[in-house]
Amino acid sequence: MTTLLYSMLCLSAVVGLVATVVRAIGYARAPLHLRWELYPVPHEAPDRVAHGGSYFEQSNWWNRPAHFNLRGELTAMVAEMLFLKALREFNLRLWWRSFPFHFGLYLLIATAVLVLAAAVATVFTPAVMAGALGTVIHLLYRLTGVAGLVLTLAGAAGLLHRRLTDNDLKTYTTPGDLFNLGLFIVALGLLAAGYAFRPVGAPDVLSLVVGLLTWNTAIQVPGLLTAGLLMSALLAAYIPFTHMSHFVGKYFTYHAVRWDDRVNRRGGSIERTLAEYLTFRPTWAAPHVTADGVRTWADVVTTNPAKGPKR
Amino acid sequence: MKDRDRIGLSDMSRRDGTPLAHVENQDLMPLPAPLDDPARERAWTPLTDQAKNRYECLLDDTCAVSVPKPATKAEEDELVRKFLSGLDKLFTRENNWTFLQPLLLSMEHCAKCQTCADACHIFEASGRNEIYRPTYRSEIMRRLYFKCVKHGGMISAWQHGDIDVNWPMVARLIELAYRCNLCRRCAQTCPIGADNGLVAHELRKLFSQEMGIAAKEIHDTGSMLQLKVGSSTGMSAEVVKDNVQFIDEETSEKTGITVETPWDVEGADVLLIHNAGEILAWPENPGAFALILNAAGISWTLSSELAGYDSINYGLWYDDSQFARVAIKHAEAAKKLKVGKIVIGECGHAHKALSVIADRILTGDLNIPRESSLTLLRDIVMSGRLKLDPTRNDFPVTLHDPCNVVRLMGVVEPQREIIRAICPKFREMTPHGVDNYCCGGGSGFAIMSGHNFRDWRFHVSGRKKLEQILNAFGDCLDPSIPKYLCAPCSNCKGQFRDMLAYYDLWEQNKILYGGLVELIVNAMTEVKPGFIEWEWH
Q1: At B388, is the secondary structure helix, strand, or coil?
Q2: What's the rounded Cα separation, in Å, for the pair B167 and B189?
Q3: Domain assignments of chain B as residue spans, ordered by start
Q4: B220-378: which CATH topology?
Q5: Interface check A307 vs B, CB under 8 A
Q6: Complex prediction ipTM
Q7: What predicted TM-score, i.e. pTM, was given to this entire model?
Q8: Potential cystine with B94: which of A168, A280, B336, B469 (Cβ 3.0-4.6 Å)?
Q9: Based on C-alpha coordinates, what's the Rg of chain A?
């Protein structure tokens, strides 16, 4: 049973990671699109960010040095990623449910990283874990683990309640949406219950991860905790196949769309990329487009349909 | 609204031949004084029986696109087939490299949290009518994507939701694509970054580029006419030159300063491109531009090349091929004259089209610097080259922010710096800048008046802006106080002209609208007083 548990934990981690990377690569490989930014763009000069201005506010802007306000962009990113700033600003009612859910997940991820680090240290440098630093790490992952489980469960329950009771959301809620939130509650609920009510002598979280690292199948994991671990592992593998993987999408919607104000300079990399796209052969069927699958975009856009196609 | 009465997504495929939604005046968002009096609310003109019998009017109380009803089931099936073919093409690199990435992101990551709904002026003004909710349209599209493009089966339908694909659904979706101003205020508030405005834009593209279906005002008498004669106004180069000469004479007489507009000056620093609608509808605007640029000593010219004298680019709203063609015409006009830069007149969508969107269309020697006229005007005003007397503008002024100039391009302060300098009674709308509300005429609505569409755009799409205007002038609604709504955008002005007249706000409350350059010339001490004429036009 322990072997199966270890295998499932590893497999789920690999599936989740690979699926996330594949999704990210898919978006990254999509063609460079026409500019579609939305202001404010936080990497603009600080005096312009305040009112949402852009470099277009300067006359002869193309002769002025490009300005990239890294601090502004990082500040906006941290506020958005950690505290869901946009949701707080525009949908406070939902934020009270969504923020604990997401922040709880961050704490659980932090817990996993801390426990993994502690397990590695336990295996390779046990003296470190026996010292003061070890005490701090033990305390930290216990804190983040408990807080993460409580916040995520409370948030998921709040989100599910709202989906079931808010008429504005009902029309747009699919069975899959309810299942997804339910899965969080069941998986993390089982995990919390399995851990909290584990019998005396059952392994704690660190022993479990050390066991996994050393593939110690002699460890006996209680049934309820095993169920919680398996469900949580399945959840981690499942998320990248759903819209819940918006942590991937959000990187692109912000950096590659909303904030992408890069200028196309003559002879620059953007121009070289566009040159390739102009050789694409569209097949749009409306006559005025004059596309036939043979003519390129360059042919199409230099044809004046009002004056007769240039063929 | 009772839950059972709520319009659902499956209603889009209803075959009962009746519209999905109906809006009564009492459903609408209330307006402040003086339009809080129900007696000043206008009744809707119903669609005629002829329109209902001839066109697919299955969505709501109006009809924007006028799609003829198919005569046979075979015709219906063929239209659905074309729709599905176009839907596939929207998600291919070869056909839609222009917007594939943002479209995929919006399809696959909406959390359906409805944060966007409260940001949408159309949804709010309609009294939160479900079909105008930003995600209503997007959710239909999203379900179509997973079902028909990704070919998801039962599990996908369970995860993403299902939709019946039939002709009534497609016909309603065509109309629904034209119930969004593409202002992208909803996208600005989305915590994920999903973009309902983009979804409406892409749907319009599908209908135009695959099915040849678009609102006639933006295609037949819009971009096609512009590509044929040079301007969607129908003005040829000869006609536009005649008209501008007349404007020069009028402006000279009115201001006491001789104004002469230069044409086709090779090597000029600036090629100014107006929305040609200004020349016909608001001639004082190009007249004021000419006077200011001449007085400031700017080396500038207009172009008489095809489309070189009309900055409009309606393809921005519905068709990438038409968009690119017109952008290229604009750049070719500048290239031919070897100008230093293109400066875009007071036209919002032209600003975004040529400065932002066309940036990844214009390559090589067509990549000529483009700049907003608002920055050039700000530099002129702040440089002290013009002698300006703000007391000449001693009347309440508020500023409308065209979405394409502010939220979608980031030009927010230059126009404010000018107004603060020359208008002592300036007051902002709430909210303003990048958080502004659309005038209600965006994405082509300002020029669309088929059937009773005007009623819809004044009652619904323009209502939030109307509320903002009335609130901004709430302390001075008395008709003895003339008030100026400054709108540095031709389409917005078109919407305001029609909407203020519709609600009789000039006659009853003396709210006038106009551009920014008119305020500048009105403040010039060298000009005869009274450039702004307090007359309705």
Answers
A1: strand
A2: 33
A3: 3-211, 220-378, 387-523
A4: Rossmann fold (3.40.50)
A5: yes
A6: 0.96
A7: 0.96
A8: A280
A9: 26
